[in-house]
UniProtKB/TrEMBL annotation:
Organism expressing this protein natively: Polaromonas vacuolata
Domain AAA+ ATPase residue range list: 50-188
Family, similarity comment: Belongs to the AAA ATPase family. CDC48 subfamily.
Name of the protein in question: ATP-dependent zinc metalloprotease FtsH
Amino acid sequence: PAGKEAEKAGRSRVSYEDIGGLGPVVQKIREMIELPLRHPQIFEKLGIQAPKGVLLHGSPGTGKTLVARAVANETDAYFISISGPEIIGKFYGESEAKLRSVFEEAEKHAPSIIFIDEIEAIAPKREELGGEKQVERRVVAQLLTLMDGLKSRGKVIVIAATNLPNLLDPALRRPGRFDREIVLPVPDRYGRLQILEIHSRGMPLAADVDMGEVARITHGFVGADLEALCREAAMTCLRRVLPEVDLAQSTLPYETLMQLEISKDDFLSALREVEP
Ligand code: ATP
């Protein structure tokens, strides 16, 4: 319930509007996750099974967590987020019990989404696990049992994220488990422009800033990099306009505030600091 409250409290009220450059991905997510959560009867009527598990894969910072949170918010689904390393580490000795309680909580509050970040940490290929990896072995088995046992199909959906899909235990990808996959690509120039526009939405940009140009010269940057770039450009502007001595002043002249306008050069300087 604490997770739900934190979600409701604001901080992460992300919506589809906050996702840039992933049009087709969002479309697939809506079909695979939003539709069954909202209207499970459609799947029944069509005679097909609503998915239980969806695997998101893509490089770090491409928006996997963002997409999962957005779909939960947009559908008002109960959202529980856990991560593979956390299950093994923080809950050492109680990993399976923790997984069971997560699934119980999700069923109780359905419709809900369970998000498992870095799933490769709990579900590596079992045959590659040596004798010392007994914990992981049991955790994979527990996860599979819980997914097979999900009663309210369509009402509880498990979204798992990984940047190493080939490391996953193939048993996880069988029908009825994570049998749908969505790839989050590294954004192209147009995607980068959309992401830059999202992250500079609330920023005072000078007239000489051409985001299309910034998008052109940021080949290889993913969403998280572009967000960092916008933040760094703002900080560069701050340092330029407000020399350190002024920061100690207790009042800030209105004119100084008005001068805070992020310029093209601020973006260019920021580019020297932020790398993909
Ligand atoms: P990791 O594999 O490291 O967990 P991830 O794929 O889950 O990465 P997120 O945590 O979703 O990536 O992305 C980090 C931040 O980068 C997001 O909170 C968001 O601000 C920004 N971001 C990433 N992708 C996008 C995108 N497509 N549109 C807008 N912002 C994005």
